[in-house]
Design brief:
Largest interface: A-B, 96 and 86 residues
Number of helices of chain A: 30
Oligomer: heterodimer
Largest sheet of chain A: 2 strands, antiparallel
Number of strands of chain B: 0
Radius of gyration of chain A: 35 Å
Number of domains of chain B: 1
Radius of gyration of chain B: 20 Å
Helix content of chain A: over 70%
Order of helices and strands of chain B: HHHH
Strand order of the largest sheet of chain A: 1-2
Helix content of chain B: over 70%
CATH topology of chain B: Helix Hairpins
Number of strands of chain A: 2
Structural class of chain B: mainly alpha
Structural class of chain A: mainly alpha
Chain lengths: 762, 116
């Protein structure tokens, strides 16, 4: 069942492309699939995980590499999977109207379903390496989706930026996973938590740093936060899905998942508190200064992600529950607000808040969804966002580390986020109808049902929190490692936290009235974006300078580069890694006739190089070949010698066949070039000599020789061991070789025939 | 003899590479031929030189006569010789065709001739 949950979106991806191309008007029914998966996840959570604990299934994949598609579903994973599938269904439903008639709708749907599968894989993978693969797949599909409008240079740029950053984080995840697997001896996340005390292990610090790098880039934490506002170049349904509700939470999810394994130390908690807190404040502050509604929401997403990281850093049971509630609340109101902004953009053609107003008359249902979502985000009582904020404050208040400071920044950031919520969810709908709104209509049904049901869910959860107490408790157990019953309630008396909630609401009201002044406080850009592109540009400039030098359009130039590079690498390997070879007991003493043969070979080779007539060069090459064949005879290789003799003869015959083209070999290159080539060739030749001397005299007994000597008569039923190797042990290789020869022969025949035809025609 | 093999292999490489850097196609092909011979010698020497019996099981004893030469590099070289022949044969005919169609066998001119 779990495998089906993860893998079926991958199967559906091509189906979705087909449906999108063939019946574009029926695309919305594709939403039924993720909806069904959501029901499945819900069913598994209630009937199995809540009763009998986590469930596990395993599919074999690449077992020798320790890779199995092992899926492990506990409360945390399934709650995350529920968010992915529920919002996924609504986004598909919404996108069918938002992008109706777009020629690239099939492409979008394919990437969307691939992303959904990858995301479910991240949530449910137990094998750390499988998790890495799914993790990178989410980054890759995100790249495709941000760059969906690939005619737009800004979209390509944003896609590239997100891909480079999250991709680098993914590599950090791979490195961290490798360290952890080596330290614990298991690839399964569910077993790592039981592997004992990792904090004192020498690789602990590195593993934590690498996992942080992965999580912080994916979840847009300071200083990597700048890619997320850029990712708003994606179509709005995609922003709602990937860049607010699901993918950016993968980093938070990873941190939550790793808490039982890596958490609990000062390094872990303090880093998360500092990074999360900073991100929360920076994100909230930037949010109130934007006027593009999508960027407003993007920065509040950054802030919310910071808050989530902060809560994981606090690490108590209360904080874990708070994080889960906050995450669900955020997914509901932010997903909804994004879809609302998409609807506004769709109807008016702008997302600039200063040009929008009074749309409640034209778009009443969208306005209702927006109002409900904004109320939840501000944290009004009777909305689910209120629970998230209350629990968040309480977690900060009861934190063992700096409770006062945590509470202070939390209230400040929440107040700013409340202002942003009003800006996005209320501002465009109240006041006088603006010019751009005059021709607006209510959005198509598929575009208000999604946000309305998401926002409505927030109200239902708030009024009847009992229905999700169970899942929240199970999910929190995934972070803390121990299950405790959870009872979130709307009213828990006059507590200090309630006071802070009230204070937040007052601040929101006060700051919202001053929103225009807040926007003018915009600081000069810190320039994370510049810091990102600077090195990339420098890299491009370097390759712009180097490439023309290397690629001059002359084949001989390439050959020269290859020869020098290969020779240089070989020489370096011999000098650095070589050391003196351990000579075998006694080298073979040369005999007089062998010396004569070798001299003939060398003289012939030099003659071939210096030859000024083609005849002389061909004869010299033949002489070299026959000489080498004679050497083979002397050293126990008659098979080689026979082959070499026949091949050499054939080569000379072919040379003679095409002899007409050969004139005299007068010099085409200048003396200087010839001298340079001679020096290069001579030096590389000397390196080769050293190499032969090194490997030929090393004391490295061949184990294969004895095996083949033994096996040739018994297994191969042949007496000539070399032949048995070729036609038996390496038969496929030899078959490939014969094929190559046949292809070459066909090529030779064809070329000669074309030549003959041309001659006849002319 | 290892030293002698090393020098021979080096000389074949040096002359082969020198010829591969020439402008005439025919010279380049001859260079490839020298280079493959040098490589075969390299592999042969890498397997360890023994002035010994060929690795053929004697019919009388059913055993190899010790000392016997290592059959593995021999098998590799046998493949290399044949493939090297294929390469040379094909490139020779190809060069021949280039010469016929473009009237030149100078690699620096081929590009300009072909564009004409």
């Amino acid at each position: 069942m779990l495998s089906f949950l993860v893998l079926s979106p991958f199967v559906l991806a091509p189906v979705a492309a087909y449906v999108g191309g063939r019946w574009p008007s029926q695309v919305r029914w594709l939403a039924l699939w993720p909806a069904g998966l959501a029901l499945l996840a819900e069913h598994l959570l209630r009937t199995q995980v809540a009763v009998g604990g986590p469930i596990t299934t395993a599919l074999p994949w690449a077992a020798p590499l320790g890779l199995t598609l092992q899926f492990h579903a506990d409360g945390l994973a399934l709650v995350f999977a529920l968010m992915i599938t529920v919002i996924g269904a609504l986004v598909v439903w919404y996108a069918s109207a938002y992008l109706a008639g777009h020629r690239d709708l099939p492409r979008l749907l394919t990437a969307l379903f691939l992303f959904m599968g990858a995301m479910l894989g991240v949530a449910l993978s137990d094998n750390l390496f499988a998790l890495f693969v799914f993790w990178e797949l989410t980054g890759f599909t995100s790249y495709l989706l941000i760059g969906f409008e690939h005619d737009d240079a800004a979209a390509r740029r944003a896609a590239m930026q997100a891909f480079v950053l999250t991709g680098a984080g993914g590599l950090a995840l791979l490195a961290g996973a490798t360290l952890l697997v080596q330290a614990t001896g298991t690839t399964a996340l569910s077993e790592m938590a039981r592997a004992g005390d990792l904090a004192s292990h020498p690789v602990y610090v590195w593993a934590v740093v690498l996992f942080f790098a992965a999580a912080f880039t994916k979840s847009a934490q300071v200083p990597f936060h700048f890619w997320l506002p850029g990712a708003m170049a994606a179509p709005t349904p995609i922003s709602a899905y990937l860049h607010s509700a699901t993918m950016v939470k993968a980093g938070v999810y990873l941190l939550a998942r790793m808490t039982p394994v890596l958490g609990g130390t000062d390094l872990w908690s303090n880093t998360l508190l500092v990074v999360g807190g900073t991100t929360m404040v920076v994100g909230a502050w930037r949010a109130v200064q934007e006027t593009d509604l999508k960027r407003v929401l993007a920065y509040t997403t950054v802030a919310a992600l910071g808050a989530l990281v902060l809560m994981i850093g606090i690490g108590t049971q209360g904080a874990a529950v708070a994080a889960i509630v906050y995450m669900i609340a955020h997914a509901s109101y932010k997903g909804s607000l994004f879809m609302v902004v998409g609807a506004i953009d769709h109807e008016t053609g702008t997302r600039d808040v200063t040009r929008l107003g009074g749309l409640r008359q034209k778009m009443p249902l969208t306005a209702l969804a927006a109002a409900l979502a904004a109320a939840s985000m501000v944290g009004l009582p009777f909305f689910f966002g209120f629970f998230g904020k209350e629990l968040f404050y309480e977690a900060g208040w009861t934190s063992a580390r700096a409770p006062g400071l945590l509470l202070g920044v939390s209230v400040a950031a929440s107040a700013l986020m409340g202002v942003a919520a009003l800006t996005a969810g209320v501002g465009p709908f109240v006041g006088r109808l603006s010019e751009v709104g005059e021709r607006a209509h209510e959005a198509p049904r598929a575009m208000w049902t999604g946000p309305l049901s998401l926002a409505g869910a927030g109200v239902i959860f708030a009024l009847a929190p009992g229905i999700i107490n169970g899942p929240i408790g199970l999910a929190a157990a995934g972070i803390t490692g121990a299950y405790q019953d959870v009872h979130i309630v709307l009213w828990h008396g006059f507590t200090p936290v309630l006071g802070f909630s009230a204070l937040t609401l007052l601040l929101v009201a006060g700051l919202y009235s001053q929103r225009h002044r807040l926007r003018q406080l915009r600081p000069a850009s810190v320039g994370s974006d510049r810091i990102f592109w600077g090195p990339l540009r420098a890299l491009e400039r370097v390759s712009e300078a180097v490439s023309p030098a290397l690629y001059r359009g002359s084949i001989r130039g390439y050959v020269l580069v290859l020869i020098v590079a290969t020779g240089g690498l070989l020489a370096a390997a011999l000098l650095v890694g070589g050391g003196a070879p351990v000579p075998r007991g006694g080298l073979v003493p040369p005999r007089a006739f062998e010396l004569v043969m070798v001299t003939v070979i060398c003289v012939a080779a030099l003659a071939a190089a210096r030859a000024t007539s083609s005849m002389r060069a061909v004869l010299a090459l033949g002489t070299v070949g026959y000489g080498v064949a004679l050497l083979f005879v002397t050293y126990g290789a008659p098979d080689l010698a026979m082959t070499q003799f026949s091949v050499e003869t054939l080569t000379v015959v072919i040379f003679v066949l095409v002899f007409r083209m050969f004139g005299s070999f007068d010099h085409l290159s200048s003396r200087l070039v010839r001298l340079r080539d001679a020096i290069v060739a001579g030096v590389v030749g000397a390196v080769i000599s050293a190499l032969v001397l090194f490997v030929g005299t090393a004391d490295e007994p061949s184990r294969l020789a004895d095996f083949f000597a033994e096996a040739a008569p018994t297994l191969g039923h042949g007496r000539n061991v070399v032949n048995v190797i070729l036609v038996d042990f390496r038969a496929f290789d030899t078959m490939g070789e014969i094929t190559v020869l046949a292809v070459a022969a066909i090529g030779v025949h064809a070329l000669l025939r074309i030549g003959a035809q041309e001659r006849r025609n002319s | 003899m290892e030293v002698v093999f090393a020098i021979t292999s080096g000389v074949l490489y040096a002359t082969g590479l020198y010829l591969m850097l020439r402008r005439r196609l025919a010279q380049i092909i001859i260079g490839i031929g020298l280079l493959s011979n040098g490589t075969n010698l390299l592999i042969f020497a890498a397997g360890g030189l023994t002035r010994s019996n060929p690795p053929v099981v004697s019919e009388a004893t059913g055993q190899l006569q010790v000392p016997y030469a290592d059959p593995v590099p021999q098998a590799l070289i046998l493949t290399a010789i044949v493939i090297g022949f294929g390469v040379i044969a094909f490139s020779l005919v190809l060069a021949h065709r280039v010469h016929q169609s473009l009237g030149t066998d100078d690699v620096d001119d081929i590009g300009t001739e072909a564009r004409r």
